[in-house]
TrEMBL record:
This is YbaK/EbsC family protein. GO terms for molecular function: aminoacyl-tRNA deacylase activity. Pfam families: tRNA_edit. PANTHER family: CYTOPLASMIC PROTEIN. Residues 24-141 form the YbaK/aminoacyl-tRNA synthetase-associated domain. It comes from the Bacteria.
Length: 156
């Protein structure tokens, strides 16, 4: 199960004890915010896109939306989300539990500037009923992100 892989992965960073598992689903931003007890914007959602034969995972704030022009300007291609059939094969996680941890080596992870307004955020931890509280620095380190990008629509 992916959550067990994420626990083992985050243990290497001394962060596995922060994973929270819930009785209810946390598969959407709204459900995760309710389960964690925070505003939806602080849920760090992992959006998975197709780049040739691997995943490009962009972690964005829960209230952020991809700006197609910014995405194309940044990555040099049109934003094409993975299909439901591709998600697990390309990310190592099922829909609702996609996260920036314990992904296949070929997956590329980026963090979006939309999260920079928070000290801590809550990404999923490999299942549709989990989350982990991380500072942005911790998220950058343990996600092995290639860097910060600005690919979301400006928030009002």
């Amino acid at each position: 199960m992916a959550i067990e892989q994420v626990k083992a992965y985050l243990k290497g960073y001394g962060l596995a004890d922060r994973i929270r598992e819930f009785e209810e689903s946390s598969a959407t931003v709204e459900l995760a915010a309710h389960a964690v007890g925070v505003e939806p914007a602080r849920i760090a959602k992992s959006l998975s896109f197709k780049k040739e034969d691997h995943a490009l995972i962009i972690v964005v704030a829960g209230d952020a939306r991809i700006d197609n022009r910014k995405y194309k300007d940044t990555f040099g291609m049109k934003a094409k989300m993975l299909t439901a059939e591709e998600v697990e094969a390309y990310t190592g996680h099922q829909i609702g539990g996609v996260c920036p941890f314990a992904n296949p080596e070929s997956a590329e992870v980026y963090l979006d500037d939309s999260m920079k307004r928070f000290e801590t955020v809550y990404p999923a931890a490999g299942s549709a009923n989990s989350a982990v509280k991380l500072s942005l620095e911790e998220l950058m380190q343990c996600s092995r992100a290639k860097g910060w990008v600005d690919v979301c629509k400006d928030l009002a």
